[in-house]
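step: validate -> pass
step: tokenize input -> pass
step: predict -> running
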Amino acid sequence: MKRDFKFWMLLLLFGMPLLFLAFIAGLYFIPCGFNNDCSQAALPEIIHTPIPTLIPAAMPVAQTGGGGSGGGKCAVQAMTALEAWINAGYPESEPFQFTDSNGASCQATFADIQVLFNEGNLWYAGAPACITCHHSNVAAASANMDLSSYAGILAGSRRASPDAKGNDILGGGVWAQSKLNEVLNLPSGNALAMPLGRPPAAFPPGGPIVLLGQQVTGP
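step: predict -> pass
step: emit ->
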């Protein structure tokens, strides 16, 4: 019994290092063969994932202006544009002329002016669109006034019914006498200041700068 124990201890002491060396040698020689560059290795074929040719990105060409007779959009204060439109007789389809904040000659149509009534966040950050309160349902609209269409604007305020004519808000074509000019120029501390709920000094006199119409370069 003692002799068997001694034999197995010696076998364990000398056999473990040999087994360890054999394991390390196997890790190298089995996949690479008996050379230093692994040229005899029986490795599986490498399959490369194909990468398609990338299509170069291209930015769209910037468009400026609205026609051969003009340049780009005009930067103008909102009330300057309204004043020009009203003083020109508030046309529905014909263009009217104005001078923008940079002194450039410009023209626009009612479609440009309508944006001033239809878009929110225009007069100041968080401002509701004018048509939020002044909509086509004149019975429920504020001041019984519809600013959502050309016909509604011409029909005026305080209308008894959708077919009725109300009070003129365009001053008969004179901006200085128009109701629009009056309510937009109320002191910002006034509870009725328009656009509704505007904070003090929400925009400078003349209103915010907007981009509308187009520059005209010719007569």
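step: describe -> The CA atoms of residues 102 and 170 lie 26 Å apart.
step: cleanup -> pass
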